[in-house]
Design goal:
Blueprint (H helix, E strand, L loop, with lengths): L5 H13 L11 H4 L35 H8 L7 E4 L5 H18 L3 E5 L14 H12 L6 E6 L9 E6 L4
Parallel strand pairs: 1-2
Antiparallel strand pairs: 2-4, 3-4
Length: 175
């Protein structure tokens, strides 16, 4: 660590004089704060283990985490008929989100169990591993949605229902 030049030290003193301490903290003394303490005199920082992240509440499970194997098999084979279809072709991100939110609201109120969400396939130049903007945003939209607690799972659609250009949204049963 290099030492401050006389010009830098003078500038630092001006800065320290203009700083007001936060409420409840000790003020800095210009002489003590003018130059950092040499590393040899510094105390080793205490290593504090990070606190574990709080567990999410059990009542509001994340979308896509609660399907049994029979549902997954039936969805993968396209054996389940959707109760409603939401087609987002021709929409921009804002109007797509609005339409999806309204249709989710209608489906939850109407007791629907399975929605087919058609996002469309990406343009040809993005087809090699890329996703369209709407398809890329759908996961975040559903997770942040006011209906996230009503969604049991989100799965890729079977080829007969649109394949890579569509998703199944499985809603929880009302109890």
């Amino acid at each position: 660590m290099r030492r401050l030049s006389a010009e830098e030290r003078a500038l630092w003193h001006k800065v320290v004089e203009t700083v007001r301490p936060l409420a409840g903290t000790a003020p800095l003394v210009a002489g003590k704060a003018s130059e950092p303490e040499p590393e040899s005199k510094r105390a080793a920082p205490a290593i504090v283990p990070p606190k574990p992240a709080p567990k999410p509440p059990a009542a509001k499970a994340r979308p896509g985490t609660t399907l049994d194997a029979s549902w997954d098999r039936r969805l993968a084979r396209g054996l389940v008929a959707p109760d409603a279809i939401v087609d987002l072709h021709g929409h921009n991100l804002a109007t797509a989100w609005d339409l999806l939110d309204r249709r989710l609201d209608q489906a939850v109120a109407g007791g629907a169990r399975l929605l087919l969400l058609i996002t469309g396939k990406p343009p040809a130049e993005k087809a090699r591993g890329g996703r369209g903007a709407i398809r890329a945003a759908v996961g975040d939209w559903l997770h942040a949605s006011r209906h996230a607690g009503d969604i049991a799972a989100v799965r890729n659609a079977a080829p007969r229902h649109g394949g890579a250009g569509a998703l199944y949204i499985v809603l929880r049963r009302k109890r």
